[in-house]
Amino acid sequence: MARRSWIGARRGRAGRGGPAGSGLPETMGVLREVRLIGSDLQDGLHGSRALAATRRIRRLVGADAVVLADLDGPVARHGALPEGTDLDAVLAQVYEHGTVFRKPPLCAAPLLVADELTGCLVVSGSADGRALDEAETAEVAELVSQALDHTELRSARARIAAADLRTLRAQISPHFVHNSLAVIAAHIRTDPGRARRLLTDFADYLRYSFSTAGDYVTVADELQATQTYLELQRARFDDRMEITVRMAPEILPVAIPFLVVQPIVENAVRHGLEKKAGPGHIGVSGFGEGPLCVIEIEDDGVGMEPELARAILAGVGPPAKNVGLANVDRRLRTVYGPEYGLVIETAPGNGTKVTIRVPRFMRGVVTE
Q1: Is the model's pTM score more than 0.85?
Q2: CA distance 53 to 41
Q3: What is the mean predicted confidence (pLDDT) over 69-79?
Q4: What is the CA radius of gyration of the chain?
Q5: Which one of 146, 163, 204, 285 is least enclosed by Cβ atoms within 10 Å?
């Protein structure tokens, strides 16, 4: 039997016998309930609003009872099942065969997330005095499965972002650590005061880089860590590196993901200025652009081919170059959406400019 849209069938019955468009209010109500079911299941079957989801599903299909179950058994139920119902046997039947099971007034359908069996939806009875058929129950189960799939995607994105951050922390360059300590040691006799300041900067930099305070920091915190890193690098360059930092005050309290500016600055030093003969310059600037926070990191180093920059952001560039930039780009897109990745402007011999453009305010992006 061809699978028909349950929502479409409901809409068709609502409009039967009436003027064109008379079923619109009911249709809009159905769409709203569908959206809210997804919201109720945003924390999965074991979330605090799973019971609310069963209540909405029951109201939406006019059922006597609705049950949501995981592979271990029922997790949320609304309404009363018929007396003598062996729910465990119904679930076992669905889990064994992975298909819809119907025994009026019950109908049960598997919940599939990423094509894997995750649970079961059980519906008992309906408002018009009959049990839902297999196609109708499967349609509702598909709605629940999609909501659970979105939940899993959100969780996976959060896990990826956390793993990327751990990767950045683990890849603090041993080369940088060695050079920083060597520079500090060289200044101990010639300029003890500066050696002490550099040693303090080095300790502050490591403390920030390995901080476990949270996933987000303010622009001001990230800027301070970046300036500390640049002071250490300037000492290593024998003061041949010029630094310009300009930040509009209104963006300093904006929350951004931890370690997004410093890795870009490090990339500018290592792959832009270290290979350039003579002095070099790095500029870090930030400003508000309507609802956006814009941060630009620009160097006058050796630059690169635009095709190489695109490959780096895609994660397929040379391993020595692509870790920091690709990591930051991926985390920004994970947190804010695909339109908020890095923008790189570069050409051989003309330096590189990297732009971060993110919302100044976004739900969930807050400092602890």
Answers
A1: no
A2: 7
A3: 92
A4: 29
A5: 163
